[in-house]
């Protein structure tokens, strides 16, 4: 994904008031068309409609949802977690953000300590090491 956290925070979906096609949305948000199609396939971001020839059409509400999705993706939430957060009005977003902050803090500490970081499948990635000052040196 090419959108940074700063870009996700400043991407203002309200500036776009007309309907946009999938490629336009992808370009505006900094994601690939395939990513927007995948989000549609898993029900994370469905377009408001389709054109006469089948192109996905996104409206303002869709773009606002995409903005929230990109924000949580930048914070390394899984798509399943994001779906829960954006779909369930009873979800405690603050609790999720605190938990994610703890995970990111732990990951940063592991990187600084030169122990690699834990992958989602339970393995570790120890290709990165640190020098005596704690700076990350890069691939072994």
Structure description:
This protein is α+β, with helices and mostly antiparallel strands. The protein folds into 2 domains: 5-87, Orthogonal Bundle (Multidrug-efflux Transporter Regulator, Chain: A, Domain 2), CATH 1.10.1660; 93-139, no CATH class. Helix content is 49%, strand content 13%. It has helices at residues 5-10, 22-29, 33-41, 60-74, 79-87, 93-113; strands at 20-21, 49-50, 56-58, 117-118, 124-125, 128-130, 136-139. Helix 2 crosses helix 3 (33-41) and helix 4 (60-74) crosses helix 5. The longest helix is centred in the C-terminal third of the chain and has 21 residues, at 93-113.
Brief overview, please?
By secondary structure, the chain is of the alpha+beta class. 49% of the residues lie in helices and 13% in strands.
Write the topology of this structure.
Blueprint: H1 5-10, E1 20-21, H2 22-29, H3 33-41, E2 49-50, E3 56-58, H4 60-74, H5 79-87, H6 93-113, E4 117-118, E5 124-125, E6 128-130, E7 136-139
Antiparallel strand pairs: 1-3, 2-3, 4-5, 6-7
Which keywords apply here?
two-stranded antiparallel ribbon, 2 domains, 6 helices, 7 strands, Multidrug-efflux Transporter Regulator, Chain: A, Domain 2, 3-stranded antiparallel β-sheet, single chain, alpha+beta, 140 residues
């Amino acid at each position: 994904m090419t959108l940074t956290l700063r870009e996700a925070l400043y991407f203002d979906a309200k500036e776009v008031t007309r309907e946009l096609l999938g490629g336009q949305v992808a370009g505006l948000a900094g994601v690939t068309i395939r990513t927007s199609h995948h989000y549609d396939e898993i029900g994370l971001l469905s377009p408001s409609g389709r054109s006469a020839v089948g192109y996905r059409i996104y409206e303002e509400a869709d773009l606002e949802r995409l903005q929230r999705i990109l924000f949580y993706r930048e914070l390394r939430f899984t798509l399943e977690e994001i779906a829960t957060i954006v779909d369930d009005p009873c979800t405690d977003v603050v609790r999720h953000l605190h938990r994610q902050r703890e995970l990111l803090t732990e990951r940063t500490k592991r990187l600084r300590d030169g122990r690699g970081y834990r992958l989602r499948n339970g393995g570790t990635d120890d290709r990165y090491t640190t020098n005596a000052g704690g700076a990350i040196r890069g691939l072994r």
